[in-house]
Fold this protein.
Amino acid sequence: MNTVELPIIIQGGMGAGVSSWQLARAVAREGQLGVVSGTALDVILARRLQVGDIGGHVRRALKNFPVPDVAKRIIDRYFVPGGKADDKSFRAKPVPAVKPSRHLEDLLVASNFVEVFLAKEGHDNPVGINYLEKIQLPNLPSIYGAMLAGVTYILMGAGIPRTIPGILDRLAQRQEVELRLDVKGADPGEEFFTRFDPNEYCGGAAPMVERPRFIAIVASATLANMLARKSNGRVDGFVVEGPTAGGHNAPPRGQLQLSVEGEPIYSERDIVDLEAMKALGRPFWLAGGYGTPQGVVEALRLGATGVQVGTAFAYTDESGIDPAIKKRVIAMSRAGEARVFTDPIASPTGFPFKVVQLPGTISEESAYQARTRVCDLSYLRHAYKKPDGTVGWRCPSEPVEDYLKKGGDIKDTVGRKCVCNGLLVDIGLGQIQRNGEVEKALVTSGDDVATVARFLKPGATSYAASDVLEYLTSELDTALSPSVPAVSRQAI
């Protein structure tokens, strides 16, 4: 493994397609770590092709995919010259499965390859990709696709990714890998797995790939310590995420208590022990509330390698969020009206989920109640053991009657929102359902959404990733004095 100088700024891997290849490339070209989101890339690739592959970027990347027949099949199936009609639905793709079809496997491997390939295009700096441990089924072929494109960092949170480091080791050695599935109702000692064989996938000897560095996203020093000691391979560092960070948050420690507004209450128990983090001897970055020049300096002073920043980048020109949504949120921020609600029940994962309060989106109770429940993307389904011993799948956000038929508890369905469809609307790829309903957005951001307008230059209505980086690094000359701990400048 080659030595790589560690970044001070990690651009967060946000949403589905929010941390797009354009954003990651812009950040990486400035010398910091650009990160693409690895969530739902298979459906994003299929839909980008169906809207006409504007700029030809997807097809250009697919030309470099090492299994040419796969690229041809995907283009033949999904590409619509000039784009589909606005009133037509997107063509469906297979939902995640324990034993995916070859077509689904192709989409997963190729889409992750495409996103990383495009993020790396035109420069030689490191690029990362972010995954959620909770979304287990797509992870093995997705990771392999990113590795085929030469991804430098894998970042993963929303769970306990103990086996991912060993999986990276085995994939780099061109060996078959397996990932144990979390299955509710499984008997003690009973295990279920999903598997991926790179040689079988490539139809012979798989290409040589580099083992990327693995960064675990954690919310406590206890979890970081466990991962450092008990993972089946090396954890190369940690992102320590606080409760003000966007997207999914770790639940508060102890019994859940809600504020008057209905948000989870975090306490001193949720403050990460940074001395314990330093004692692990691994690089770590602080996330959530550190997106200022002073925050960067403070993180370095505390012994961190740097910071991870998401929300500030989410509304840049290069991010994947629909320009109309960006414009509205930035205007609200400038007017002092932008806020998020940390919803303890919105996400079917069970993790608190930060939702921007934006009129006309699913953040509004009336819009939520008016939506017909459907589970057609199925990334956040839960596995459960069926009476016949096989694995079944259910989602608290699916139609209630379907969830109950699968043995689910009706209490789990209350207030659950379809995160999958909502996030795709955010990036301009929302579905028109069979009943004619047009899916509405569900925008997620960190608490810093209230102040993103600070990046606007006089007279401007938008800002670029370079503006955020210039702002964040504006006091680094002070921070990188000899008094700063050496860990902040080390390499791995």
